[in-house]
Write a structure and sequence with these properties.
The protein has helices at residues 52-60, 82-87, 105-110, 118-126, 130-133, 145-157, 175-187, 202-207, 226-231, 233-240; strands at residues 14-22, 29-36, 41-46, 65-72, 75-76, 90-93, 163-167, 194-198, 211-216, 219-225. By secondary structure, it is an alpha/beta fold. It has two domains: 3-89 and 162-240, P-loop containing nucleotide triphosphate hydrolases (Rossmann fold, 3-Layer(aba) Sandwich); 97-160, no CATH class. The two termini are 26 Å apart. Bound molecules: adenosine-5'-diphosphate and magnesium ion. Residues 23, 28, 46, 48-54 line the site of adenosine-5'-diphosphate.
Length: 243
């Protein structure tokens, strides 16, 4: 097990220990340890049905039954509601339905709950999304797929989260937009936001990550520095596919 998982390591922003649980009395994830250090990008890869989305749900407070522990910035958030985790600094960009189509771009940003000095914060966030500035008064339904994804990211950044959780952010996108999403992800640490990302395009995701975890049948079968995982021939064949 890597150093980042060490129980005594207090420097991690997110620390998941022995997380176990499922949708009924059957466990889907079987004791997962995972850590994200501040300002780092961490990728979770693995086969279909490995439990990646289930792990994300457990982290967000959306899984009915969970044991083990989750600490964010040293605070135990294991039993908090999804709303309280959001307030604690955990942001999530859903794959679909991540903006309000009938609201303007501006209102999509202004309605995010509990943002102090919301207009000032909106201007700060928009500095990284110039395409949105030109479209502030238009309904989000007018946006292209790429712009909509930018708006979803901008919305998630409004409350100044500590960490952004992404479950397959490129899955529903046209191939031409994939690189743009990875570019947005790559810039998050500079804005003080760490990233925990599930991705099918594991190679591309690991290329912009510092750490990676490979899940199989609800267990972590390998973890370590992203570069090392990319260079591991056997793992590459088994889990990384061609992307
Ligand atoms: N809402 C649900 N209710 C019951 N079982 C589910 C639910 N969602 C997923 N599962 C099961 O949990 C397992 C892991 O699924 P999931 O976490 O979605 O995998 P991944 O995201 O790695 O593809 C699968 O066997 C799947 O059938
Ligand atoms: Mg999934």
């Amino acid at each position: 097990m890597s150093e980042a998982n060490n129980k005594t390591n207090k420097t991690n922003l997110l620390q998941i220990e022995q997380l176990r649980g499922g949708y009924s009395d059957v466990d889907i994830i079987h004791g997962i340890d995972l850590a994200v250090a501040p300002g780092k990008i961490v990728t979770i890869a693995g086969t279909n049905g490995a439990g990646k989305s289930t792990l994300v749900k457990a982290l967000l407070g959306l899984l009915p039954r969970v044991t083990g522990s989750i600490h964010l910035d040293g605070r135990d958030i294991t039993t908090l509601s999804a709303e309280d985790r959001f307030d604690a600094g955990l942001a999530y960009v859903p794959q679909v339905a991540n903006v309000f189509p009938s609201l303007t771009v501006r209102d999509n940003l202004l309605v995010v709950r509990r943002v102090p000095h919301v207009k000032r914060r909106m201007d700060e966030v928009l500095a990284d999304f110039p395409a949105l500035v030109e479209r502030l008064s238009q309904p989000a339904s007018d946006l292209s797929g790429g712009e909509r994804q930018q708006l979803a990211f901008a919305r998630a950044l409004m409350p100044s989260p500590r960490i952004m959780v992404l479950d397959e952010p490129t899955a529903a996108l046209a191939p031409s937009l994939v690189g743009k999403v990875f570019d947005m992800v790559r810039k998050l640490p500079a804005a003080g936001v760490a990233v925990l990302m599930v991705e099918q395009r594991a190679r591309q995701a690991l290329t912009i990550s510092q750490q990676g975890y490979i899940l199989d049948q609800g267990r972590c079968v390998l973890d370590g520095p992203a570069q090392g995982l990319l260079e591991d021939q056997r793992m590459a064949q088994l889990y990384l596919g061609n992307h």
